[in-house]
């Protein structure tokens, strides 16, 4: 069995999310990291391999993103993927979720996986949608929020978390499964794996190499049009009461609350 894991490079969680006023898109500059939700998908692939119920011949990390996204692929490989595929092309910049899903489905079609795993959401866009879009293009069954996965009689038995409880669903391969973050506790990469990650095979493809129709990607090929996004107004600075004397401090806090009719 071949498993492809979709991974994305996102701005580090510590970086404040900003909208670039000139493009209306998210400003993705600054420190970046592998989307934390995707580490659960890699771990799920590793556990399927180690579980032994099915023979996993290959785990391939797949991303679409600029040159810098190779770092996310190196991290994915250090966590257990055998090799990676990087779809990178200037024409893909500005793709919305439909166009991104279309482009990723083309990269996946090249790989012909038996199973596609991905995170429940990206830490930047948070659309929770890529799995469904990719599955639709690939005409594969798709499940979201999967928190348990077992191979049973050649099919995949999944438990998915829903608002009302849990669904148990059996799907045939090939399938696209978005895993919830409750599915596992991702392992930490070993120092040896981190050092060896750059030596693992990494293939870079451009849009034309995998038959992506240029009219269906990028800002022009996207159906979502960004409106007039603005950063929220800056909050007024809070008032810090610096006082060692407890009685006086309490009086100041009560006066402050009273002034605002909060007590
Ligand atoms: C008009 C518009 C313009 C945009 N322009 C850009 C742009 O120029 N550059 C840019 O980076 N983003 C851009 N985006 C955002 C981009 O479209 C989203 O990243 C994409 O739609 C995926 O949505 P999401 O990240 O919220 O994915 P979700 O559906 O929340 O992600 C679920 C999972 O899908 C997988 N996944 C998501 N994206 C990728 C990816 N690229 N590669 C591999 N796996 C992935 C991951 O496993 C992730 O955990 C734009 C969005 C819009 C609406």
Order of helices and strands: EEEHEHEHEHEEEEHEH
CATH architecture: 3-Layer(aba) Sandwich
Biggest β-sheet, characterized?
Answer: 9 strands, mixed
Cα-atom Rg, whole angstroms? Answer: 23 Å
Report, as a whole number of angstroms, the end-to-end distance. Answer: 65 Å
In total, the number of domains comes to: 1
Compounds present? flavin-adenine dinucleotide
Highest-level CATH class:
Alpha Beta
Strand content: 15-25%
Q: Helix tally?
A: 6
Q: List segments where confidence is low: pLDDT < 50 over at least 5 consecutive residues.
A: none
By CATH, the superfamily comes out as HUPs
CATH fold name: Rossmann fold
Helix and strand composition category: alpha/beta
Number of strands: 11
Shape: globular
- The average pLDDT value, as a whole number, equals 93
Task: Summarize the amount of helix as a percent range.
Answer: 25-40%
Question: TL;DR of this structure?
Answer:
The protein has 263 residues and is α/β, with parallel strands linked by helices.
Report on the architecture of this protein.
26% of the residues lie in helices and 24% in strands. The strands form two sheets. Strands 9-8-7-10-6-1-4-5-11 form a nine-stranded mixed β-sheet, sandwiched between helices. It starts with a strand and ends with a helix. α3 (97-111) packs across α4 (130-138). The protein has helices at 36-51, 70-78, 97-111, 130-138, 191-196, 246-259, and strands at 2-6, 9-11, 32-34, 58-64, 83-87, 115-119, 142-152, 155-162, 165-171, 175-179, 202-205. The chain has one domain (2-216): Rossmann fold (3-Layer(aba) Sandwich), CATH 3.40.50.620. β7 and β8 form a beta hairpin. It has 263 residues and is an alpha/beta fold. The model has no long low-confidence stretch (mean pLDDT 93). Flavin-adenine dinucleotide binds next to α1, β4, α3 and β6.
């Amino acid at each position: 069995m071949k498993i492809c894991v979709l991974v994305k490079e996102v701005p580090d969680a510590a970086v404040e999310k900003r909208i670039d006023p000139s493009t209306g898109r998210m400003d993705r500059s600054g420190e970046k990291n592998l989307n934390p939700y995707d580490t659960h998908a890699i771990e799920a692939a590793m556990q399927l391999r180690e579980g032994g119920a099915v023979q996993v011949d290959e785990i391939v990390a797949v991303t679409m993103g600029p040159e810098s996204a190779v770092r996310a692929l190196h991290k994915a490989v250090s966590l257990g993927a055998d090799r990676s595929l990087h779809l990178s092309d200037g024409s893909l910049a500005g793709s919305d979720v439909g166009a991104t899903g279309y482009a990723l489905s083309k990269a996946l079609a090249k790989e012909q996986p038996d199973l596609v795993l991905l995170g429940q959401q990206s830490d930047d866009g948070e659309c929770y949608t890529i799995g469904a879009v990719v599955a639709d293009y690939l005409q594969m069954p798709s499940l979201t929020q999967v928190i348990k996965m077992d191979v049973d009689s050649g099919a995949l038995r999944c438990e998915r978390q829903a608002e009302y409880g849990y669904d148990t669903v059996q799907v045939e391969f090939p399938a696209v499964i978005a895993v919830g973050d409750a599915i596992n506790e991702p392992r930490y990469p070993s120092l040896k794996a981190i050092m060896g990650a750059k030596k693992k095979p990494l293939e870079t493809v451009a849009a034309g190499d995998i038959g992506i129709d240029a009219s269906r990607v990028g800002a022009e090929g996207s159906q979502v049009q960004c409106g007039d996004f603005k950063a929220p107004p800056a909050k007024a600075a809070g008032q810090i009461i610096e006082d060692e004397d407890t009685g006086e401090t309490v009086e100041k806090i009560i006066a402050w609350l009273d002034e605002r009719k909060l007590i």
